[in-house]
Give the backbone structure.
Amino acid sequence: MSTPRARSILMAAATMVLAVSAIGGTAAAEAAGNNAQNGTNDAGTHHETTTALADAFNGVDRNTKWQQTSKLKLDFPTYHTEGIAFSEDHIFLSAVQITEPTTKFATPQNGFDRTPGKGIGHLFVMDKAGKLQKDITLGEGDMYHPGGIDFDGTNVWVPVAQYRPDSSAIIYKVDAKTLDVHKQFEVKDHFGGIVMDKQTGHLVGNTWGSRHFAEWDLQGKQLGTWQNPNFFIDYQDCQYVPNSKMLCGGITNLPQTPAAGGAGATYELGGMAMIDLKSHDVTRDVPFQQWSTAGHVATRNPFKMTADGDHLTMKVAPDNGDEGNGTEILSYEATVTPAN
């Protein structure tokens, strides 16, 4: 039989349960809000809110005044540099050490236009001062050529391919803090660059000469391919840009006039391009003609860019270890007026 005292106790208990539930609901709402600000939720879906780099890059054109603001000389053998990425604690630089160059066939053999050659793939891990902390060797057999790399906030993604078109590649994931290496999957083509699309959780790679793109899930299932609609430059190193965009730097080697050496001498045309990963369109491409110590166009290989409002900073490392003053990480800065 219920008594007034028993009813009072039950009512107090119910009030406490409702209060705890309200607090829990508020905490859950705050956590959801924090996840949304950080770009993720518990299900792994990304809600990106910052488009600073995409907006600022839309203000870059041929008249943009880029100023070289620093040089960071690397004091270890870097061989032929390929891609660069920056985490909170480290600088990552991919490079290939050639021990036997490839040789072109007179006519294609077994679907290849050249011998595989031999080499060693490196992912150099440095502190922010450029001091080498670890040399991670990547690759298997004929797949020894690392390409452009991307840091997704947790992992560095590295493709390591045969040094010839229409071949094969391994996609590696390297934990940026522990430096643990995981072989993610293999693909049947030369992929020389890769980014992680944080909005979809998929990987996007570009082939030899960046003539084609492919998209995969994290198990290596190919979800789609498309042709590059642009022939301005070959993309060498790319990065993910919210929302579902890909910013690449690269180079095209063009023949010179007869007076300047003819077809045997080349002119390095550098440039940058923004690709929309949903429409697959190149939304903006801009030439870049500043030169390294060894005389290479600055966007020749490793390339990354950041934005602080309308102020852009570009980091590049175009020179090989045995050229000029060796490999230097060059910084260029520019202030732009974002396009309307």
In short: The helical segments are 4-38, 52-57. The chain has two domains: 1-47, 48-335.
